[in-house]
Amino acid sequence: MTELADRPAGHYTELLREAYLRWEACRGTDPAVWTDLMADDFHLFSVGAGRHGAEFSAACRSRDEALIYLTSLSRGWEMLYQPIDDFIEQGNRVAAMGTATWANRRTGKLIETPKADIWTFRGGRAVEVREFFDSAALFAAASPGPPPPSETEPPVAC
């Protein structure tokens, strides 16, 4: 019997739905929310790719490296809210989509961005996540200087 046959449809979605609720409830400060789901050989790939202003987002190739990622993220950024409301599960993969709003602790600037994570599971454990968000907004929030106009001016009506 395969791993997928052992798990009811929606199993991974429910694991992730609960984890995202816990992550938002602790405002991104409890790495165990995620490390408890990870296999030892877990891989994380982020659109931030570890570039300047998003050093925390360097690729991870183990649960221990992912713990460093999560600790660095919460050290540099404060989660304001991050509702993840939409999930699509197919086999051992789940796409999780929502919105993320974080404040940079050094600059005080905010980022509000659509967020999507693509998870892969094996043997009941997460083995990979690919993280997508508005990296330009993240780099702007991490940069010194005044906030971008979108944070200080009302939106222009269309």
From TrEMBL:
Residues 24-129 form the SnoaL-like domain. Pfam families: SnoaL_2. InterPro entries: NTF2-like_dom_sf, SnoaL-like. It comes from the Bacteria. This is SnoaL-like domain-containing protein.
